[in-house]
């Protein structure tokens, strides 16, 4: 039994900024390999405008293919009530509703204010069946590419409204730009957990733009967070956050926790093999360190016993 949960977001966050379209069949094959490595909770795509993010235009097809992949627990990202309804109609069992704390980023991303997105979230909750799982992604919880560091009280104030709407929803604080630091991550999670003890599960979505992705994951773990987003091969980079590079690499997160003696349930060798393929995707922006380290030789980084 693993002590934490790693959510693989490469098939959504990792692919969305890639220009050359990845054939749907290849996406499904990579999903199968990720599941074979032990990654079962996977963000397979998003229901968004195909003109804004053409790489995501086949999300409904990939969602349908998940019916033949019993190990995969798919979740899809949605930015509005309309897109959430579309995802539920397509059979999505879990929705990830995203909105930004930052006014500038939310308007750049979805053309509305954070308060208007909160209203969309509340309408979506009222419109979908009760058995559809909900996760809330709070983008720019720490930092915004346009406004800079976000005051902690601003994030907490928006959470006050959102938690009230659905206390049982998993809530993910997102370092959209990768400019958060471990002290900031620890402080915000500590305050959020004290302010909202009714939240059943907290998660962290970390980017590695400045090389602090793993340090931020560790800081959140020390504050009791047990759900972490990561992207195989460190693929990623938000198209709506200029300068942001990839997510923290899944293989790096697995390596760190396993070295710490914290079980992840992931087969690192199998994961590294699929990460190598992910890093070779045309147009992809990869990152991470463990993939290269394990390629240096069989004993270069032997696991702790």
Structural commentary:
With 305 residues, the protein is α/β, with parallel strands linked by helices. It has helices at 10-14, 24-36, 59-65, 81-89, 103-110, 114-127, 152-165, 182-195, 213-222, 250-259, 268-279, 290-295, and strands spanning 5-8, 41-46, 73-78, 94-100, 133-139, 143-144, 148-149, 170-175, 202-206, 227-230. Strand 8 (170-175), helix 8 and strand 9 (202-206) form a beta-alpha-beta unit. Helix 10 runs antiparallel to helix 11. The longest helix has 14 residues, at 114-127. The protein starts with a strand and ends in a 10-residue tail after the last helix.
Q: Which percent bin holds the helix content?
A: 40-55%
- Counting DSSP H or I runs of 4 or more residues, the number of helices is 12
Largest sheet: 8 strands, parallel
Structural class: alpha/beta
The value of Rg in angstroms is: 18 Å
Order of helices and strands: EHHEHEHEHHEEEHEHEHEHHH
Mean pLDDT: 93
CATH class: Alpha Beta
Residue ranges: pLDDT <50 for 5 or more in a row?
Answer: none
CATH architecture: Alpha-Beta Barrel
CATH superfamily: Aldolase class I
The percent range for strand residues is 15-25%
CATH domain topology: TIM Barrel
State the distance separating the first and last CA atoms. 18 Å
């Amino acid at each position: 039994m693993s002590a934490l949960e790693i959510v693989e977001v490469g098939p959504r966050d990792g692919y969305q900024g890639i220009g050359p379209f990845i054939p749907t069949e290849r996406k499904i094959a990579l999903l199968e390999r990720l599941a074979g490595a032990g990654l079962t909770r996977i963000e397979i795509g998003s229901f968004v405008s195909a003109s804004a993010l053409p790489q995501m235009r086949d999300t409904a097809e990939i969602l349908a293919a998940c019916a033949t992949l019993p190990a995969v627990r798919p979740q899809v990202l949605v930015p509005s009530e309309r897109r959430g309804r579309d995802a539920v109609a397509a059979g999505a069992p879990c929705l990830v509703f995203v909105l930004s704390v930052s006014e500038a980023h939310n308007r750049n991303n979805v053309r509305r204010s954070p308060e208007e997105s909160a209203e969309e979230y509340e309408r979506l909750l009222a419109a979908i069946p009760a058995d559809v799982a909900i996760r809330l992604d709070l983008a720019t919880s720490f930092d915004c590419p346009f406004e800079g560091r976000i005051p902690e009280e601003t994030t907490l104030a928006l959470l006050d409204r959102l938690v009230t709407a659905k206390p049982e929803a998993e809530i993910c604080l997102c370092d959209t730009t990768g400019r958060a630091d471990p002290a900031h991550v620890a402080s915000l999670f500590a305050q959020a957990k004290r302010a909202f003890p009714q939240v059943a599960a907290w998660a962290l979505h970390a980017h590695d733009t400045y090389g602090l992705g793993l340090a931020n994951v560790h800081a959140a773990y020390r504050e009791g967070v047990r759900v972490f987003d990561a992207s195989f091969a460190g693929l990623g980079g938000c198209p709506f956050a200029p300068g942001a590079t990839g997510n923290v690499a899944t293989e790096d997160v697995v390596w760190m926790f396993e070295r710490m003696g914290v079980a992840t349930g992931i087969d690192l060798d199998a994961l590294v093999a699929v990460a190598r393929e992910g890093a070779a995707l045309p147009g992809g922006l990869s990152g991470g360190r463990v993939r290269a380290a394990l390629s240096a030789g069989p004993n270069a980084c032997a696991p702790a016993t």
